[in-house]
Amino acid sequence: MIMNSDNYTILAKYYDAAYSHLKDLTDIPFYLEYAEKYGDPVLEIGCGTGRILLEIAKKGIKIDGLDASPHMLAVLKRKIVTQSSSLPQKINLYQKDMRFFSLEKKYKLITIPFRGFQHLHTISDQLMALRQIKKHLRDNGVLIFDVFYPNFKILEEKMNEEQLDIEWQDVKHTGYTIKRYFVRNKLDKLHQFFQGKFIFRTYENVKMVKEEDSPLKLSYFTYPQMQLLFENCDLEIIEEFGSFKKDPVEICKEMIFVLRKKGA
Q: In whole angstroms, how far apart are CA 182 and each of 10, 138, 165, 178, 232?
């Protein structure tokens, strides 16, 4: 992740509970399939709290995790300790920025799941990250990542309006409900990013007892733009999909790319 790691203090605390209640999140089987297809070692960039990484590790596949946020990695480290009996392989974790990392290892598969690439906000950063990743790919290795295809109507509507997107029962406090809202407060069409924040409100019955927020800034991309980035990094597309069910990329919901070194 590229955002200031302090931005993840609040998000890391609620991350696992929130996304376990997001019903349309269907990326784990997709990434697990490719991890089994290409085999270890695997590197997951933007591994966060290990939502995908741990599922791959449980299959006995050697996987390393890289993330810029110490808060997200702290949650993942605690989960590795508590789930150690179900993790047959050692997991190496690295607190590093995807633009600048250097590991003394090359991988058969590198992934940037759950739109991690969209935390890169300039062309320079995007190219820097892709070139650094390419250095860590084996000659027959692949890079896989997903970004959303921008729905320009949704990006423009309901600016500065809070939208409730997830709610769940707090397992640590009986009778407490946590609701996550998102508000988008800036859209930069020229540089192709939007900004906003997640708001976490905790309720005891109908009374709000706590409110915390976490900022979010995401870039968005068009398909030709992605092609140009790949071309400038000598990467070529070998597969592309428009969903995690492998629908054609033309359906324009997600853009999921499987890439290799050009000429490999």
A: 14, 40, 7, 13, 35
CATH of residue 144's domain is 3.40.50.150
Same domain for 24 and 111, yes or no, is yes
Q: Extract the tokens encoding 254.
A: 């997600």
Asked if 253 and 243 count as a contact pair (C-beta separation under 8 A), the reply is yes
For the chain, the average pLDDT equals: 95
Structure pTM?
0.95
Q: For residues 38 and 109, state if they share a domain.
A: yes
248 burial class (0-12, 13-18, 19+ CB within 10 angstroms)? Answer: exposed
Residues 95-114 have a mean pLDDT of: 98
Question: CA 45 to CA 27: how far, in whole Å?
Answer: 15
Helix (H) or strand (E) holding 79: helix 70-82
pLDDT in tens, 129-173: 999 999 999 999 999 999 999 999 999 999 999 999 999 999 989
Which of 166, 167, 155, 168 lies closest to 196 in space, CA to CA? 155
Backbone angles phi, psi at 239, to 5 degrees: -150, 150
Q: Is there a single domain that holds both residue 106 and residue 157? A: no
**Same domain, residue pair 101 and 196:** no
Residue 140's domain comprises 5-149+222-261
pLDDT of residue 4: 44
pLDDT, one tens digit per residue, over 57-71 is: 999 999 999 999 999
User: Any residues with CB less than 8 A from the CB of 226 and at least 6 apart, and which?
Assistant: 147, 255, 257
Number of domains in the chain: 2
Tokens at residue 117, please?
């690439």
